[in-house]
Amino acid sequence: MPAPDAALIARKAEIVRALRRIVPGEGVVSEPEALVPFESDGLSAYRQTPLAVVLPETTQQVSEILKWCSAEGVKVVPRGAGTSLSGGALPLADGVVLGMAKFNRILEVDYANRCAVVQPGVTNLGVTHAVEADGFYYAPDPSSQIACTIGGNVAENSGGVHCLKYGLTTNNLLGCELVLMNGEVVRLGGKGFDAAGYDLLGVVTGSEGLLGVVTEVTVRILPKPETAKALLLGFPLVEAAGATVGDIIAAGIIPAGLEMMDNPAIRAAEAFVGAGYPVDAAALLIVELDGPEAECAELTGHVRALASARGADFVRVSHSEAERLAFWAGRKAAFPAVGRIAPDYYCMDGTIPRGKLPQVLSAMSEMARSYGLGVANVFHAGDGNLHPLILYDADKPGELEKAEAFGAEILKLCVAVGGVLTGEHGVGVEKRDLMGTMFDPTDLACQQRVKCAFDPALLLNPGKVFPTLHRCAELGRMHVHRGKLAFPDLPRF
Question: Residue limits of the FAD-binding PCMH-type domain (predicted)?
């Protein structure tokens, strides 16, 4: 992280007083013991006590906080529920954490336009709970949906087990209210499906808190499908399960969800939840098909045939809604379940072309043997989004460093086979120094220029995403060689 500014730390009392004038009462946290819960996010291997935490309740307060911090050169780290697995909400010793937990109201449900207007602190599952009585739901469903918030989902462009058919957050986001670092409040998009002008909503989605602070979100809600069935498919070989994923998509079948777990993850989840998983299988696919009942029945037969052709020796189809939910309960509890088989684990997130699944899974097994660390694989197989859980013991010297090196090698492999560094967890701190693996200096400079357009003083969430954060003035310089600019015939503005 950037070296803390001692001058800002020395101004803590002044900063806290100013924040308390904007957010009175219990809205500012500054006592050392009270700051402990904010030291890390879901990437708990990294910790840092923030200078202070401010918990606004209104857009006006957020605007005044950012405007004051901008004028005083104080850094700000936006934070939702703190479930980020990439260190995106890791605080700064010389910065203020802007917690959005009190923005927890659903403002409007508009069934005519099939959308809901919510505050960013509303949990992902909270949106579905608000509309399910009327037969609707919110499609993106990260495994942390019971705790993660919509604002954080926007920041990371979160997905979930149903993103294969229904898309990530970006595909289900219609509009947002955003406060810029200078305090300006802007609206992007709205209730319509296609806003005019540049796609700034697309720029903000997945921007990891580097461009602004979201204070209101308009999301798309969908009617629940007529029928939904889930299949459990067990395989004696991991590679066969991976190949079946490609076969299903190649056959023109787009399941609502298509997940994969290897044996360590299967055993942990089954012991934790008791979902009826085949504990002797080398790999398990969970395939969900939804739509009209006749369509689900037809596609179920096709999927079973494709799995059998690849050697599946366990097939179970859900016969009730309770059974379908039980199948998914094991998958959604897989991350905490793995905590039963290792003192610590490091959750990675990379995405590869589906056809490369067998190759990458085999390579990861070899890496695990090389590093002497276990790995449990739980991932969104349908869209190639891997979530290998590297098992280690933080109390053993050097094991965290080995886990990080193992994870970096997995991500480099993802890029090498034509994939990307992240699917939904974001870059944050975790993958920041690997950005050069995927992007060249020109790519990174262009991305940083976007950052400069929104936050010229680089005060919002600094130290994240970019391995080398240039000052905006440096990015704006033009190269002069022997007294001449490059492309002198082009008009300059």
Answer: 46-224
